[in-house]
Amino acid sequence: MQQQNRDNTTTRILVPTGALGISFAEQAFARGVGAKPDIICVDGGSTDSGPYYLGAGTSKYSRAVTKAEWRQLMIARAEGDVPLVIGTCGTCGADASVDWMLSITREIAEELGQTVKVATLYSSQPVERVQDALRNGRIAPLTPAPDISEDSLGECTNIVALAGAEQINAALDTGADIVLAGRATDTAIVSALALRRGDHAGAAWHGAKIAECGALCSTEPTSGVILLDIDQEGFTVEPMAKDARCTPHSVSAHMLYENADPFILYEPGGYLDVTEARYHALDDRRVRVTGSHWAPSDQYTVKLEGARIGGYQTTIMAVLRDERYVADAREWIEKLHRFVTNEIEKRMALTPSGYDLEFRLIGVDSALGALETKPSNPAEIGVLGVITAPDAETASEIGKLINPYVLHYPLTQDEELPTFAFPYSPAQSERGALYEFCLNHVMILDDPMDAFRLEVIEVGHG
Amino acid sequence: MASIGETAFNVRSKNAGPFWVTVDIFCGDEAAFATITEQLSSEDVARLFQQPVETIKRFEIPNLHVVKFSLPRPVVQGDRFDRDMHGAQWAVLLAEHDLDASGGYTLGGDAPGKLTRVP
Lengths: 462, 119
Prior knowledge:
The complex is a heterodimer.
Chain A (H helix, E strand, L loop, with lengths): L10 E5 L10 H9 L4 E7 L6 H5 L6 H18 L3 E8 L3 H18 L2 E8 L4 H9 L3 E3 L8 H5 L1 E6 L3 H8 L5 E4 L6 H9 L4 H11 L14 E5 L3 E6 L8 H6 L10 E4 L2 E4 L4 E4 L5 E4 L2 E4 L3 E21 L2 H5 L1 H20 L7 E7 L18 E9 L2 H17 L19 E10 L3 E5 L7 E8 L2
Parallel strand pairs in A: 1-2, 2-3, 3-7, 4-7
Antiparallel strand pairs in A: 1-8, 4-20, 5-19, 6-15, 8-9, 9-13, 10-11, 11-14, 12-13, 15-17, 15-18, 15-19, 16-17
Helix pairs in contact in A: 3-4, 7-8, 8-9, 12-13
Chain B lengths: L3 H4 L2 E6 L4 E7 L3 H10 L2 H8 L7 E5 L4 E7 L18 H5 L20 E3 L1
Antiparallel strand pairs in B: 1-2, 2-4, 3-4, 3-5
């Protein structure tokens, strides 16, 4: 392990997994703890699962799983007496998710008999703050950005700003044992301590980007645990699972992952440029990286994420198995769509501008839609009707109105009424609010803490 | 005529935030990298995604034998008309695309190993 080569100026970071809630290999984690890291960092969220989690302010992962994994990290933190940091608590990093994580932390501390100083960093933005910033020209669009106005900002159910290393360090500076951060960049929680200690800034951000997804930068992506050493010139990365390896290829290829640009990464306060980075195998499992460059910016900006309710959805599903209907499924949904559009207008006095109704053919092109290039010849086809309306009652009413036609609509007038397969009763599902992302912007700040709030409390048994 | 999927080691796609999707073609070796960079044009990619070619960012990374394309998502993630929340199935559009030796994009005069950015 790297331990032997370590000097006082190196910052050692243990990343147990790419996201709290997706599990990690226990033996690998124990090896990582044994390497005596200076800090344990884990990501708790992402926009990857869609706008619902930010819109509703809720976690994607179950509380039980989150608690079980967080408990392991809290035990390791106490044993190693090092800070434990989680970024983007509860998937979306809204204030309610930080408090959710705090309640879990409090329970565990009490169960373990630990006394823990906890810093909570809140990233939620009051709408008025963002509206003021917009009015004062302190909001800038990224590409591509939806149009925004003070009114559209007012429709957001949650707006968060992504904290950078500065805010994470402000939380660490409180001397907290545990930092529960709201929305933060995935990299900031990993780079912060090394930046504070004066390690190479390019190495800190680049190493953080490589390590933030856990073992995804290794040959065994599901093993989870990664150890990262950041020093004055570069960084070294090593997977903790015994059969996992980091290679120059696996590490450099990780810059491609979920990055629109594999060489440039924008962060609060500047950007990372890895165009000149060199990847060197120290042995068959460790990689050394140098030549990463950090370019500070003149203005300090934080990225904003926001979600609002775009409508309410009801879905309905039928399965076609009859050979003729499978062969003519496209024609069937086109005729059905025309027919029910007319019925909805007649019976509900609702024109197509007042709602959206789409039939997707599962087994034909339901994933790619108009982009599909491959002809298919399935035995059966699922017909998924997706209704989106301004309110839940209208969506549900439309679902009920079209139900008999989705079940029985005939291709021709002179045939006995067909009946297709409904997989369940009721055939329709009320999906509730449909949230949509409505911000891809940055906000200019004079001081990094201007848009963030920090609180410190003690939990557990005193 | 071979498809990109048959020529390359792996083709994957994923959201790069809610507003972008990125496709990575791991060619596997130098020969496949040369074939794909020569025979897959940014126009082909634009056509497959039905997006204007100006929106396609193209990266060629010779030392990884990777060709990467990033573009604004044809539909924003989670929009009512979005059919693939993670954007991971879009990779098949490229994987199943047949390479065409007659047309396409040719590497410029850059030195080997140097990053080539083609907007």
